[in-house]
Amino acid sequence: MSQGATTVSGLVSGIDWDSTIKQLMQIERRRVTLYEDRKSENETKLNLWAQIQGKIAGLQGAAQNLDRRSEFVVKSASSSDSSVVTVQASSSAPRGSHSVEVLALAKAHSIAAQGFDDKNSTGVGDSGGDFVIQIGDETITIADADLSSATTLDQLRNLINNSADNDDLVTASILDDGSDSGRFRLVLTANNPGLDNRISFLTNPTTLNFSMKVVDDAETGAGWTGTSALTSGGTYTGTANKSFVFTVATGGTVGTTNGIQLDWTDSAGNSGSLTLNAADVGVAKTIAEGVTMTFGAGTLVAGDNFSTDVFVPTLTAAQDANALVDGIYVTQSSNTLENFIDGVTLNLLSVDIGNPVEITIGDDKEAMKGKIRGFVDAYNSVMQDLSTFSSYDEENKTAAPLLGDGFLSSIRSELAAIVSQQVSKLPSGNDLTHLADVGILSASRGLLTINEEDLSNALDDRFEEVVSLFSQSFESVDNKISLVTTNEKTQGGEYSLVLNYGATGVPTSATINGQAATVDGLLIRGAEGTSVEGIVLSFTSPGTGPGTVNTTFRLGKGITEMVAAAAADITDLDSGSIHYAQQNLETQNENLDRQIASWEKRLTTIEEGLRRQYSTLETTLSKMRNQSNYLAGVLG
Length: 636
Prior knowledge:
single chain; 636 residues; alpha+beta; six-stranded antiparallel sheet; 10 helices
């Protein structure tokens, strides 16, 4: 019953007109139901096409994971002692063994200033001007306006760490050494190791001293009972921060007693003894490394102890890494040695002089087979869906939603043709020209299978041919020309190149296959809109003098690059086959929506007509009944 429809009474006829109209309208709505069913079927198809889009995009990604040699080839790298050296290798690393002896590790420079009794109340002083820290060739400037004599260690640390100039150059921190006095020190540590990252100061208006060695005041231990005044001093000549601890072995009164004995040790494990006689009161007695101790008149009690700390501003000296690599001495500011051996990264972890570590580089064929399996799995996932969505169930006589769809058939045929075709423009002498040659065979429903033994044998016996079959390859007659990149529009083939360069060796003009190319420094780019679009070559300048290079080069597109290009075309949001398939279904649904809306209006009119018709019939029957009753009463 339509909205707002009037109920038709059947009191006179005895007929349930509302039920009758409902049944008649159900018959009339069959066309609308047909349109709605068609729209629902199209929505199902659209969902399937969205699934196919995702699967083919996944295939594109899997193919692109193999379409360049640098992505397909995987190298294994091992170290005979991973506690000393670890290693990683890129696809360009040549096979072989190398010797690495670590002589020294790179260290980051770390320095500290003299101690303060607190870190958040005493100012560091300010004689005026900017505070400028230099780290290698870079500087961090704390402006005079941000610094005052009241600036504390805490505040200065924050100013340094938060400075806009401090682009991961240095870290400021505060060291608490636990001393009774001067326990807090500002520490600056370079964030990168090596001599090139040493810390220095262009200007320092504060009272902080980062260059002077300090002998701290003597501090008595718990339970000290002596009365002699202790004064530490001297000029420390050592290179390490440490403490000297003294113990009174034989007590007495300084200034009157001979043979007072004190023993000392330092935190580096050194030790010694000191004898005081009556005449040594107020005399600076040398301990070690320029440190002195002076004792005033008074008692020293056996068993009592005291200490003094010596401080060196350089906590860690900047140092470069040193190593012997294949007998060649290497110095570098980092503990990571990159590309000293082509494509190899060495991570130096510890020094082991006299014990070279053996580094071995090989081909990780298992990892490469894993990439191939991933590509085949992605391809099979696509073909499985295409087959399932277009199948016919003979037993149940039911068709899949996309059975007979021309777009789907075209996509399936295109992908199947690529993986079964011979790959062209391979390097001369390549006998492996089909996937079947490496054990990847076509099976039922368009799926691929892998003969693992054949694939392993191909990688073992014809490694470079397998690489060229799967990924892009390039050869130039002139070794001054190399390939930088291509795109999905680039075609494989033989190309001619004519390049002119000037007196400085920089290209001035170039053509590829007779078509003008764009020159960008040492790069030559195939012009957009031409048959060589996407090709980017690099030119190695011969040095000086003008000249011309007239040569040819070969560009081979491996099977995965062709699959990736086809997948990109198929899934293109503006011009791909899936776009047109979805667009066709969406257009159909828009037409169905218009037809449904039109029929809904028509049905409303039909229903209103039926209600008027049956209402009129009831009125007529009512009049006839009244007339019949009247006549029956008259004729009696």
